[in-house]
């Protein structure tokens, strides 16, 4: 592998929420971070905030056909890819009986198909290096049933399964694959969902042993652990960062 001390990371959906917290953590730790997102304004703001170690690319990951070209251009420009964080995702809250085929496909395309495609292309680069770490972002929906999020639930269970399958194939080649499953974290997306639904919010807090929601930084720390040599003998695992929610009663 190219033994640069400078690590190169890709964070998808890295301009807001958990992805932004991860990008901030990586840059703080001296990792050159390539942030992929769809919103040019958000990308510009993050670039201004994080400075020279942050590089932004406006790209819609649902355009699967263009992903190989994207990764090839990143490899050409930066010479290596050490870390991939598959954070980009969309959600849709809708009664199961009302979810259309198109609704379901749209969520699966962004949350599963694009993760598969970008992981495959980045893995080709990492295999040549003989080293790399891929971090998936799952969710509590992969731990138990939550109503009105059928497509998201299917997607995140797929992510957990892919983590294990990829780890088995890629770990002998030097690439570790792990997963972080955030519980209920305070972000713009979760606040919007929970503040308008007090019953759901009380249920969330009531079954979380720590009695509070997490901060995006809590998730970023877990991602950083998996991304770096601190977890050099860990692969194929899923870590719940949820204040105990997934085992709460």
UniProtKB/TrEMBL annotation:
A GO molecular function term, named singly, is: oxidoreductase activity
CDD domains cross-referenced by the UniProt entry = SDR_c (cd05233)
Going by the UniProt record, its keywords in alphabetical order are:
Oxidoreductase
InterPro entries named among the record's database cross-references? NAD(P)-bd_dom_sf, Sc_DH/Rdtase_CS, SDR_fam
User: Matching Pfam families, A to Z?
Assistant: adh_short_C2
Superkingdom in the source lineage: Bacteria
Q: Which family does it belong to?
A: Belongs to the short-chain dehydrogenases/reductases (SDR) family.
Q: Which protein, by its recorded name, is this?
A: Short-chain alcohol dehydrogenase like protein
């Amino acid at each position: 592998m190219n033994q640069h001390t400078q690590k190169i990371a890709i964070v998808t959906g890295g301009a807001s929420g958990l992805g932004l917290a991860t990008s901030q953590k990586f840059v703080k730790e001296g990792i050159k971070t390539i942030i992929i997102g769809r919103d040019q304004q958000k990308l510009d703001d993050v670039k201004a905030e994080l400075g020279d170690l942050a590089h932004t690319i406006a790209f819609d990951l649902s355009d699967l056909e263009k992903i190989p070209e994207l990764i090839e251009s990143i490899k050409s420009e930066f010479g290596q890819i050490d870390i991939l964080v598959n954070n980009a995702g969309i959600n849709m809250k809708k009664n199961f009986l009302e979810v259309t085929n198109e609704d379901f496909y749209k969520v699966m395309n962004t949350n599963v198909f694009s993760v598969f495609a970008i992981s495959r292309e980045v893995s080709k680069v990492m295999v040549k290096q003989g080293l790399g770490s891929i971090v998936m972002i799952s969710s509590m929906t992969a731990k138990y049933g939550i109503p009105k999020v059928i497509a998201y639930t299917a997607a995140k269970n797929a992510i957990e399964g892919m983590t294990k399958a990829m780890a088995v194939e890629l770990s002998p080649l030097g690439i570790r694959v792990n997963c972080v499953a955030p519980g209920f974290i305070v972000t713009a997306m979760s606040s919007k969902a929970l503040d308008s639904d007090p019953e759901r919010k009380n249920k969330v807090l009531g079954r979380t042993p720590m009695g509070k929601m997490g901060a995006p930084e809590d998730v970023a720390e877990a991602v950083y652990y998996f991304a770096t040599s601190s977890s050099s003998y860990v692969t194929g695992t899923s870590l719940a960062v949820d204040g105990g929610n997934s085992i709460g009663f």
